[in-house]
Specification:
It comes from Brevibacillus choshinensis. The protein is an all-alpha fold. Helices cover 94% and strands 0% of the residues.
Amino acid sequence: MSIGIQLQTVLAMSTCGALMGMGFDTYHVFKGKSKLPLWMIFIFDILFWVGSMGAVFLILVKVNDGIIRFPIFFGMIFGAWVYFLLGSKKYIHFLHRVIKFCQWFYRTVLQIIDTLVVRPILFFYRVILMVLAFLYSVLLAILGFLWKVIRFVTSPFARWGQHLGKKMFGKSKGIWTNWKNWFHSKRKRE
């Protein structure tokens, strides 16, 4: 391995160390904001470290065909140390700002959708319900008026109809009563 490739490898591993530091901070910020159970955090911790090691190894394969030597670890530790010394606090502060901006943007988009889409739909829905209720009450009033007119017009015939009904009912009652009396009297004779 030439010196140029070795320097390139150390620089790449230093960058990987810094990026792993950024990933570590990002993971911890999101882990602190989430309320996950401990067993899920344990699984995510393992996935984070396995994923980080896999990414570093892929970069190492690209740079020097995956040859592992001592300067590689030195480069990673140096990159992570420089990151935690100089950029960790600023990056975490920037990350919190980005999260707050994303939350604000999400709430704003929801409010815009609520104002431009949901509220007009609810308004038209309520207007349609009010119009239907009004039309229903008007229809009931018209039908009530028509019923009163029909009753007024047919009221002279109502007495005649009631009288006819009583006559018919009375006859049928008489037939029924006569038949019952005849049946009971026949039983008594037997």
